[in-house]
Specification:
It is built from 12 helices and no strands. The chain has a single domain, classed as Alpha Horseshoe (Serine Threonine Protein Phosphatase 5, Tetratricopeptide repeat). It is mainly alpha-helical. It is elongated, with a radius of gyration of 18 Å.
């Protein structure tokens, strides 16, 4: 259970806007409900073409994730991935994967990541992210950190190195990873989580997205 709980600490974060978005949704529930209802109405409108539906579903998924509804966001991302016939959106599939990881649907998340790895025709960056998500799933569900350890020396994953250090420390409790993280990234959010009296935002999903350096962690 400890590993599954720890997973919530590392999962992807939409920098800065997550906290503000969730606070806004809490303070103005009717505005949030109105906007999501508007999007759902447009999605269901027969006049909306496939690409428009894709974009609307992606927008809806983002709002649901900001509101903490990762299950609803995962479903919206899935629909977005399949919205345009013959043009599967693998980016949307990986967004779905992250949301599934956040709610503990590890096997379904792993299947989605594997699908992208085996059949993706998109940019190399998509495959790199699918490999990273797969490695995170293996680490948190099976304690298998081999792939993550290899990524520490892979220049393609240089921007995620602090996140990898953090995950490896959480999984293995090997102080070497913590020491390297603190020494190499003393001001990073991952370091703050390990050295300050800081509590991760409930349900926050971070460390899988670029831009973590811009996060301000509130005490």
């Amino acid at each position: 259970m400890g590993r599954l709980v720890a997973a919530l600490f590392f999962l992807a974060f939409m920098p800065g806007a997550v906290v503000r978005g969730q606070e806004s949704a809490a303070q103005e529930p009717y505005s949030f409900q109105t906007e999501t209802a508007r999007l759902r109405e447009l999605i269901a409108d027969p006049k909306s073409g496939p690409q428009q539906k894709h974009d609307l579903l992606a927008e809806l998924a983002g709002l649901l994730r900001l509101a903490g509804d990762n299950e609803g966001a995962a479903e919206a991302w899935k629909e977005a991935a399949e919205a345009v016939p013959g043009e599967r959106d693998d980016r949307a599939l990986l967004e779905m994967t992250v949301c599934l990881m956040a709610i503990g649907e590890w096997e379904t998340a792993a299947q989605a990541a594997r699908l992208v790895l085996l059949t993706s025709r998109n940019a190399p960056g998509i495959v790199l992210r699918a490999k990273y998500l797969t490695a995170q799933i293996e680490a948190f569900t099976r304690g298998d950190t081999v792939a993550l350890e290899l990524y520490l020396d892979d220049p393609d994953y240089a921007s995620l190195k602090p996140a990898i250090y953090y995950t490896l420390y959480i999984i293995t409790r090997n102080e070497t990873y913590k020491s390297r993280l603190i020494a190499e990234y003393p001001a990073g959010p991952e370091t703050r989580l390990l050295t300050d009296d800081t509590t991760p935002f409930p349900g926050a999903m971070w460390l899988l997205y670029p831009g973590r350096e811009s996060i301000t962690i509130l005490r």
